[in-house]
Design brief:
Layout lengths: L2 E5 L5 H10 L4 E5 L2 H9 L5 E8 L3 E2 L1 H9 L3 E9 L3 E4 L10 E4 L1 H6 L1 H7 L4 E4 L3 H11 L4 E5 L1 H7 L2 E5 L8 E8 L10 E7 L6 H11 L3 E9 L7 E8 L3 H14 L2 E8 L7 E2 L1
């Protein structure tokens, strides 16, 4: 049985993503942090890791790019999970008694409009993950606290759902990366995640982007991250899609000559948006 490390606990969106990606029974290894997720894989204690990298509302998790590079991990797949948020309470808790709402900070951000409208005066407490907030709510039997999370965590921890679909944007997706210690270039691969650094001169980035365009490669994401200790210098994380591996390899050969450093974080089959419900 495959062992898969996730950030969070049973009932979390990370667990949903892992089980839906592998489409088989897997052993989930719970980790308290994204760093621990990477460490478990690096130390061969798991076969794969699943890591959130961006959300359509909250944006990118920039620190996770650094972890992938620091531990020399490879992206071998991705999955997009449609995120539906729900307000949950200990059974019997009255809506009028809610004085605090607990959840992961990104979940709170995703539901900001709902919270402002329905619970503008309540205290918001950030937790390490949505499922953890749900478990704590059940264990402590708080009758004045609500948590925000998915329906599965409500089922696992026996909570009462009082409002469903409270996220601000109903087209709310989180992209999760599937990580391994080793990459595998397969014929069906049509997407890659790269990281490169450039010299600080006019047109450096445009030159690289033009190379991709010339080889019919679609740039789906570009993220600049400051390089520590080098003012005004950045590393660029990009995701590209290609229909021809030959075109992709030719483009890489030219890009390598145009940048000061290049790292291939992974080559994989692109995930489809809109298939999986969280």
């Amino acid at each position: 049985m495959k062992k898969v490390a996730i950030q969070g606990i049973a009932g979390s969106f990370h667990e949903d993503a892992a089980r839906k990606y592998f489409q088989e029974d897997v052993e989930i290894v719970e980790c308290r942090s994204f760093k621990k997720v990477c460490q478990m894989l690096d130390e061969d204690k798991v076969n794969y890791s699943v890591m959130a990298i961006e959300n359509s509302i909250a944006g990118s998790l920039l620190a996770n790019y650094g972890l992938i590079r620091d531990y020399h991990l490879r992206v071998i797949g991705e999955i997009y999970l449609h995120i539906q948020m729900n307000l949950m309470v200990y059974p019997g808790t009255k809506r009028s008694n809610i004085r605090e709402i607990h959840s992961h900070p990104i979940a709170l951000k995703q539901c900001a409009e709902y919270i402002d409208e329905k619970f503008g005066d309540v205290k918001l407490l950030e937790k390490s993950d949505t499922a953890g907030a749900a478990r704590e709510l059940m264990e402590e039997k708080y009758d004045y606290v609500a948590s925000i999370g998915n329906l599965r965590s409500a089922e696992i921890y026996g909570l009462q759902v009082i409002d469903k679909g409270i996220e601000t944007n109903k087209k709310n997706y989180t992209r999760f990366l599937i990580l391994s210690k080793h990459g595998d270039m397969k014929p069906e691969n049509d997407k890659a995640s790269l990281c490169f650094e450039l010299g600080h001169y006019h047109g450096a980035l445009a030159n690289v982007l033009n190379i991709f365009a010339e080889h019919k490669i679609n740039l789906t994401k570009i993220q600049s991250i400051p390089i520590i200790g080098k003012p005004n210098e950045y590393s660029f994380h990009v995701d590209i899609e290609f229909s021809s591996i030959e075109d992709y390899e030719k483009a890489l050969h030219k890009v390598l000559k145009a940048v000061s450093s290049l790292a291939i974080l992974g080559e994989y089959k692109k995930g489809e948006i809109g298939i999986y419900q969280g």
